């Protein structure tokens, strides 16, 4: 059993061969694929893929920070409409802050992030957080919620040991580990040694961040197995044990643990 806690299989990169991509994921042992939304343009394809593969693919709703611009209020309105209509959303995501490409809309990104955190609490949903070059901002926004019912995943964690320990202060959160852990220059293997297995989940972020040995190819959910093997090696634990633990961690966050 393997869970891909973060995958964008609804994007056009998979338009030609999605059934084969899904089949390879299932053959690799993947039982659940969680899919974060990006913005209003991706809601329809996201829901369509999740409807076609019900029981395997699970949708989230949210506004990605790189899609926050002048019209962010309209975008948030659409997220809210989706949230209040009958839906199958398992989380609010992916949301957060991205100051890597552009800092123009920092203020708007902060407003959008905080609003979506509030909705998560209101609708009793976990959040999936995207952070790029914005650790201190994210921490500052979340700090007041430390003792709240807020839960979620810090997606694509690639930070330092100190950052990891600060994020682990949020007891209802897990760190999302993906193909970056397999990269030659990644510091993540060293950092992971000090993070309890009970606090990590595996993800692909397909079609991005393809793990070794498939670097250079489009990423897909089946490749979560490559990340699993690397993580098992770091912890010096059998892959089956890591697969079971990380899958349980993910299903717990998404409120699906039976």
From TrEMBL:
Domain of life: Bacteria
CDD domains linked: TatD_DNAse
Residues the entry annotates as binding a divalent metal cation 2: 130, 155
Gene3D superfamilies assigned: Metal-dependent hydrolases
Keywords: Hydrolase, Metal-binding
Binding-site positions, a divalent metal cation 1: 6, 8, 94, 205
Cellular component per GO, a single term: cytosol
GO function term, MF aspect, one: hydrolase activity, acting on ester bonds
InterPro entries associated with the record: DNase_TatD-rel_CS (IPR018228), Metal_Hydrolase (IPR032466), TatD-like (IPR001130), TatD/YcfH-like (IPR015991)
Leader peptide range in chain numbering: none
UniProt keyword Hydrolase present: yes
Family the entry assigns: Belongs to the metallo-dependent hydrolases superfamily. TatD-type hydrolase family.
Name assigned to this protein: TatD family hydrolase
The species this protein was found in: Jilunia laotingensis
């Amino acid at each position: 059993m393997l869970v891909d806690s973060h995958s964008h299989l609804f994007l056009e990169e998979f338009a030609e061969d999605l059934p084969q991509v899904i089949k390879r994921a299932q053959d690799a042992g993947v039982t659940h694929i969680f899919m974060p939304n990006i913005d209003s343009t991706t809601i329809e394809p996201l829901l369509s893929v999740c409807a076609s593969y019900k029981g395997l693919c699970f949708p989230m709703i949210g506004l990605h920070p790189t899609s926050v611009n002048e019209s962010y209020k309209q975008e948030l309105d659409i997220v809210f409409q989706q949230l209040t209509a009958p839906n199958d959303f398992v989380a609010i995501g992916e949301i957060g802050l991205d100051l890597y490409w552009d800092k123009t809309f920092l203020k708007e990104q902060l407003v959008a992030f905080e609003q979506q955190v509030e909705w998560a609490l209101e609708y009793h949903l976990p959040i999936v957080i995207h952070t790029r070059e914005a650790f201190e901002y994210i921490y500052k926004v979340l700090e007041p919620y430390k003792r709240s019912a807020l839960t979620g995943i810090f997606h694509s964690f690639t930070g330092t040991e100190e950052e990891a320990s600060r994020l682990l202060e949020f007891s209802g959160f897990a760190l999302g580990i993906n193909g970056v852990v397999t990269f030659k220059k990644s510091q993540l293997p060293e950092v992971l040694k000090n993070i309890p297995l009970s606090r990590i989940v595996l993800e692909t972020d397909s079609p991005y961040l393809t793990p070794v040995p498939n670097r250079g190819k489009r990423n897909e959910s089946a490749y979560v197995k490559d990340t699993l093997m690397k993580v098992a090696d770091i912890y010096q634990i059998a892959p089956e044990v890591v697969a079971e633990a990380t899958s349980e961690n993910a299903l717990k966050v998404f409120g699906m643990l039976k």
